[in-house]
């Protein structure tokens, strides 16, 4: 019973943290909306996109780092679902006739996402076996 109470308290704390993060992101989005366009102050689109990517990496790292061990299996399943969406986009990029940079990158994305999906399923299966009782 104590485990379920602790788990519910942890879930409540995480929900509160998520609510606070959503509020901070909303405030940040409102502040960004008031800024002039990037070209007006000399920033290139590449620098802006690189900044968004780096921020996404940090947010993703800290979100995954704080996941409790009981939620790792569902997290792996969601990661596999995201990889399947990546495969759809990569197939669209690899679809045009002829050889181009987009087609090569689409092929690379399909290959890496396929490895990620199958590897994720293997890891998820092994993690689920850890929670099964020994026979």
Walk me through the structure.
The model has no long low-confidence stretch (mean pLDDT 78). The chain is mainly alpha-helical and 135 residues long. The protein is 79% helix and 0% strand. The two termini are 26 Å apart. The protein is built from 4 helices and no strands. The radius of gyration is 20 Å and the shape is flat.
* Uncertain spans: none
Give the CA-CA distance, first to last residue. Answer: 26 Å
Radius of gyration: 20 Å
Strand content: under 5%
Number of strands: 0
Query: Could you give a short account of the major beta sheet?
Result: none
Order of helices and strands: HHHH
Tally of contiguous helical segments: 4
Features:
135 residues, 0% strand, mainly alpha, 4 helices, flat
SSE map:
Elements: H1 2-33, H2 45-65, H3 72-94, H4 101-130
Helix pairs in contact: 3-4
Give a quick precis of the structure:
The chain is mostly helical.
